């Protein structure tokens, strides 16, 4: 018998690739990415740009008046300098864009910080200035109390007034305390606590003499070196920050307490070994 004819096969739909869809998707994605970067580049970002600020010798004068005035006890004539350090920052309402953030990241003379870390309190320049001024007043009172307590003096007999306009915040506490100690007692052996050097530093101070961290240390070391300091006192917890881009010729001494800082400066003045970061 002749072979049965093969059964006709059902037609099969063959999918032809659409060559234009993938490139179109890539183009659209690329356009979205470019648009996103364009928006980010022009939209203000929640950052502040900070720079090395001024320094001030707490053993000297500010606007023609002594920074530290002591009543009720004899005061020494001092040599050398004890310089507190500061940073300056763009205002809370300044416009910071992506280009500022990128350039600040790679720069040595400035840093970009979250605005909330620079201005933790207040939404206006006036509120922030008032807050910083209040912190400075409290820091000065605490610094005087810590110094007198360290020296075993009664604050009912000895009065300390601190005068430093246009500087806010609590980060000068350690240097204020050291200034009071140097004016009243020096190194305890008839010499200066500074050993005639230009000493700079930073750190908050508590009434019991505890030294606390402050932030912005790499910028403060630059300000210190710029103004002639050869030694920088830094809260121990911020040693690693201070070592970043440390200026040549600036020696770091880590501190945790007022008494420890005094001991280290005495040892340094006597040519003895002192700790380092």
Automatic annotation (TrEMBL):
<keyword id="KW-0812">Transmembrane</keyword>
<keyword id="KW-1133">Transmembrane helix</keyword>
<feature type="transmembrane region" description="Helical">
    <location>
        <begin position="24"/>
        <end position="47"/>
    </location>
</feature>
<dbReference type="InterPro" id="IPR008269">
    <property type="entry name" value="Lon_proteolytic"/>
</dbReference>
<dbReference type="GO" id="GO:0006508">
    <property type="term" value="P:proteolysis"/>
</dbReference>
<dbReference type="InterPro" id="IPR020568">
    <property type="entry name" value="Ribosomal_Su5_D2-typ_SF"/>
</dbReference>
<dbReference type="Pfam" id="PF05362">
    <property type="entry name" value="Lon_C"/>
</dbReference>
<keyword id="KW-0472">Membrane</keyword>
<dbReference type="InterPro" id="IPR014721">
    <property type="entry name" value="Ribsml_uS5_D2-typ_fold_subgr"/>
</dbReference>
<dbReference type="GO" id="GO:0004176">
    <property type="term" value="F:ATP-dependent peptidase activity"/>
</dbReference>
<dbReference type="GO" id="GO:0004252">
    <property type="term" value="F:serine-type endopeptidase activity"/>
</dbReference>
<feature type="domain" description="Lon proteolytic">
    <location>
        <begin position="168"/>
        <end position="251"/>
    </location>
</feature>
<protein>
    <recommendedName>
        <fullName>Lon proteolytic domain-containing protein</fullName>
    </recommendedName>
</protein>
